[in-house]
Amino acid sequence: MAQGTTLETIAEEFQKEYEGMIAVASVNGKIRELFKKVNKDCEVGFFTLKDDVGHKTYVRTAKMLFLKAVSDVFGPEAARKSCMEFAIGRGTYVNSLGTVAPTEESAERLKNRMRELVGAKAVFRKRSYPLEDAMELFRERGMEDKEKLFRYRMSSSVNIYEIEGYYDYYYGYMLPHAGYVRWFDVIPYENGFMLVLPQKKTPDMMEDFADSRKLFETMEGAKDWGRVAGIETVGDLNDQICSGSMSDLILVQEAEQERKIGEIAKDIVNRKNVKFVMIAGPSSSGKTSFSHRLSIQLRTLGKKPHPIALDNYFVDRELTPRDEKGDYNFECLEAIDTKLFNEDMTRLLAGELVELPSFNFKAGKREYKGDYMQLDKSDILVIEGIHGLNEKMSYALPEESKYKIYISALTTLNIDGHNRIPTTDGRLLRRIVRDARTRGASAQRTIQMWNSVRRGEEQYIFPFQEKADAMFNSALIYELAVLKPFAEPLLFQIPKEDPEFYEAKRLLKFLNYFLSVPSESLPNNSICREFVGGSCFNV
Questions:
Q1: What is the pLDDT of residues 202-232, one digit of tens each?
Q2: 354 and 430 co-located in one domain
Q3: Are residues 262 and 311 located together in one domain of the fold?
Q4: 364-395: b or e for each residue (b if 16 or more CB lie within 10 Å)?
Q5: In terms of Cα–Cα distance, which of 346, 347, 316, 348 is closest to 334?
Q6: For labeling, which of 15, 96, 471, 520 is most exposed (least CB within 10 Å)?
Q7: What is the DSSP string of 198-242?
Q8: Domain count for the chain
């Protein structure tokens, strides 16, 4: 290759060797955008849309392309005010905040403008600005959220992207031009639009948007709470930290969570016939702390809650199904003895005395240790497990005897108006911190396992979330600032030569936006303490 050849040109030559469209390159172990040039001998590899970094690059580019279309069709003010709020399935909700009417006609105009830019292969240009110049650029454009974000930057420069006169800031990488963004849809939704994009596993295939109303309402409620509290972005949170008023904010949000837990407890009791509270949610949602706090609220209402872990109904190790790699699949429903669970619960519901099992994870065997239970009028079982919302888990129990709760850490804080924080990032950081504290596991090992964990969630948890009687958002608006000092040293330990380094570097860059909040400020029953330690519960 001649000196000065772009990585995009090299990628075109090697594309046939890759399954999936190439999105970014790796040059001597460092991620580089395809518009970068090669000026000396180096080792080059590529990431496609099926890789994490490649898929995130596609999503990021599509978002900027969408906002460019908003600016062109409805004016710069509409683009400035549009807020990338959160993901619902395959769609990202963009709140227009009253600047654009969410109609089919508006959506079609936006799609047509995006298609024009794709057809023209409109170029994304990246330029490094001195910090003060970047702040001035966005100040002139009325983007105060970005100016506020940069106020807490330690670096002396900022990378800004531009496409045909539209400027924006994104943390992460961008595709070379709009021609790469071949798959997208825009549909009107609530006060804005859903920008629908392909999944990582099928990046060249569009699927219909599947609405999740309960999830949307839960996340929108959290977003509204942030607006009332005056904290919508990381810059707002950093301002609050600097003002010295974090203790009040922590107490207020913890009280808000306790209020919601109390409302769920009242709803359970008001239903009269409920004997089984089924709690499910993805990894690191704070299920254990939530179940303890819910149990306390139920006790104040005259109930006697008893915790039961579905893990105690695992089949013996040798009967556990295996995945495509030959490893035990502990997350599939067949790993649970659903027949025995339903028999035990049905007998309890009938008032019988039942000996409950416990599972010896070291031996891989179910054991009985004289743990007998018999339910009276005030007893209620609080059952926690991955399959709690799946009807196949509790098929023999009358519907009126069950109350299903979906819990997840649904982050609604934004980096700025156009850069949302994925809920998965918050949960991954929670898990990295907790795994290191309770299991001695490295951040590298947690990141290695994360894709497998996510696949299990998408298969066994998310499809059932809308069937819940109640949804609880365990995310705390300040928790990433609390997790930061715990997570950073763990992420810095990952060697540069290992594949997990790319994800560690991304997370470190992300955490760099936050000022730290000491964990001493947290109440001892906070869900956040399930991860950083110091909880009054056995978690």
A1: 999 999 999 999 999 999 999 999 999 999 9
A2: yes
A3: yes
A4: eebeeeeeebebeeeebbbbbbbbbbbeebbe
A5: 316
A6: 520
A7: --SSSTT--------HHHHHHHHHHHHHHHHHT--BHHHHHHHHH
A8: 3
Residue 386: both structure tokens together: 């991955």
Contacts of 489 (CB under 8 A, 6+ apart): none
- Asked if residues 52 and 503 have their Cβ atoms less than 8 Å apart, the reply is yes
pLDDT per residue as tens digits for the range 438-474: 999 999 999 999 998 999 999 999 999 999 999 999 9
Beta-strand ranges (E) seen in 72-191 are 83-88, 91-95, 125-130, 157-163, 166-168, 185-189
Residue 480: closest CA among 414, 389, 419: 414
Contact 396, 466 (CB under 8 A): no
pTM assigned to the model: 0.95
Please report which confidence band the pLDDT of residue 1 belongs to, taking 50, 70 and 90 as the band edges. low
Ranges of beta strands (E only) in 133-197 are 157-163, 166-168, 185-189, 192-196
- Rounded alpha-carbon distances, angstroms, from residue 79 to 65, 83, 304, 485: 11, 8, 53, 35
Amino acid at 75: G
Element housing 479 (H / E): helix 479-492
- For residues 59 and 50, what is the distance between their CA atoms, to the nearest angstrom? 12
User: From the CB of residue 100, how many other CB atoms can be counted at a distance below 10 Å?
Assistant: 24
Chain centroid to CA 196: how far? 17
Please tell me whether residues 117 and 171 are part of one structural domain: yes
Strand order of the β-sheet with 166-168 is 125-130, 157-163, 166-168
Q: Which domain holds residue 453?
A: 215-532
Residues 4 and 91 in one domain: no
Q: How big is the chain, counted in residues?
A: 539
